[in-house]
């Protein structure tokens, strides 16, 4: 290989891996599917290796693709840190960011780490609680920005991500076979709770509440112990969780909308930079005007 690696090609490559498909990757990077396919062919030509298996419907990395992925992530991180650092070198201040605990634990660690590297003078305060409480905190202007699960009744926010929701169970349990189905859910007002109940009622499957938890950690404990099944966002699925589907007798669940809110009276430049960074790094919704 005698050519430098193109950052835009690497960004597309990582987007395909992270989103699991060419179309979804195109939405994330703002390109059409044919353009995405062309970029991957270009990247494979540059490295002189095949990066994905032959089945383009179920994209699986080749061993060479796995190796390149690690380099690509590191190169993109350094590129984004440098770009952020020198494009906005004077930004300073503190930002209060609100988010549910499950997003804080599973989506934000790397994002906040990279942002802090490129904006060392911005101090981030995290406030972790359920979306319904974050909405109230925004109205009281106690937080600057909030990454939340969209709910009926919320004022319009910036839609940045569609997150699939799946049924979660312990690895060795048989909770899904019990009737009524034992559930572990968040309290009333939770979107995850409501879509689970609505799906079961539509499918006419009897259910019972075995655990009501005010935190995602509590839901995990109930699921891992085998007490119940629950509805989890796919981003939180770990190797010790079993995903259930139609083959297990449970109905499909709809995706949720992840939205970004800013307080109504306006936010500082530091807060706006963080909001844009989160939207770019976590977003899988096509920019306005894109298919």
TrEMBL record:
<dbReference type="Pfam" id="PF03466">
    <property type="entry name" value="LysR_substrate"/>
</dbReference>
<dbReference type="InterPro" id="IPR036388">
    <property type="entry name" value="WH-like_DNA-bd_sf"/>
</dbReference>
<dbReference type="InterPro" id="IPR036390">
    <property type="entry name" value="WH_DNA-bd_sf"/>
</dbReference>
<keyword id="KW-0238">DNA-binding</keyword>
<protein>
    <recommendedName>
        <fullName>HTH lysR-type domain-containing protein</fullName>
    </recommendedName>
</protein>
<keyword id="KW-0804">Transcription</keyword>
<keyword id="KW-0805">Transcription regulation</keyword>
<dbReference type="InterPro" id="IPR005119">
    <property type="entry name" value="LysR_subst-bd"/>
</dbReference>
<comment type="similarity">
    <text>Belongs to the LysR transcriptional regulatory family.</text>
</comment>
<feature type="domain" description="HTH lysR-type">
    <location>
        <begin position="5"/>
        <end position="62"/>
    </location>
</feature>
<dbReference type="InterPro" id="IPR000847">
    <property type="entry name" value="LysR_HTH_N"/>
</dbReference>
<dbReference type="InterPro" id="IPR050176">
    <property type="entry name" value="LTTR"/>
</dbReference>
<dbReference type="Pfam" id="PF00126">
    <property type="entry name" value="HTH_1"/>
</dbReference>
<comment type="function">
    <text>NodD regulates the expression of the nodABCFE genes which encode other nodulation proteins. NodD is also a negative regulator of its own expression. Binds flavonoids as inducers.</text>
</comment>
């Amino acid at each position: 290989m005698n050519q430098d690696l193109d950052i835009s090609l690497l960004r597309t490559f990582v987007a395909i891996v992270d989103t699991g498909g060419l179309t979804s990757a195109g939405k994330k990077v703002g390109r059409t599917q044919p353009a995405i396919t062309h970029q991957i062919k270009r990247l494979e030509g540059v490295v002189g290796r095949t990066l994905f298996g032959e089945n383009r419907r179920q994209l699986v990395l080749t061993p060479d693709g796995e190796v390149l992925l690690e380099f690509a992530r590191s190169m993109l991180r350094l590129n984004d840190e440098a770009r952020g650092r020198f494009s906005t070198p004077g930004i300073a201040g503190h930002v209060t960011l609100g988010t549910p605990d499950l997003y804080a634990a599973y989506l934000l660690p790397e994002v906040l780490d990279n942002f802090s590297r490129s904006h060392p003078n911005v101090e981030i305060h995290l406030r972790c609680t359920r979306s319904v409480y974050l909405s109230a905190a925004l109205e009281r202007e106690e937080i600057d920005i909030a990454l939340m699960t969209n709910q009926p009744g919320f004022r319009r926010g910036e839609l940045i991500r569609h997150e699939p929701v799946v049924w979660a169970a312990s690895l060795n349990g048989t909770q899904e076979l019990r009737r009524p189905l034992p559930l572990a859910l968040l309290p009333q007002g939770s979107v995850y709770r409501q879509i689970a109940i609505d799906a079961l009622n539509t499918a006419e499957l009897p259910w019972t509440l075995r655990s009501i938890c005010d935190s995602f950690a509590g839901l995990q404990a109930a699921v891992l112990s085998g007490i119940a099944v629950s509805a989890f966002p796919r981003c939180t699925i770990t190797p010790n969780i079993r995903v259930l589907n139609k083959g297990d007798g449970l109905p499909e669940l709809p995706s949720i909308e992840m939205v970004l809110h800013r307080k109504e009276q306006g936010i500082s430049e530091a807060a706006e930079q963080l909001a844009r960074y989160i939207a770019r790094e976590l977003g899988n919704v096509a920019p306005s005007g894109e298919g």
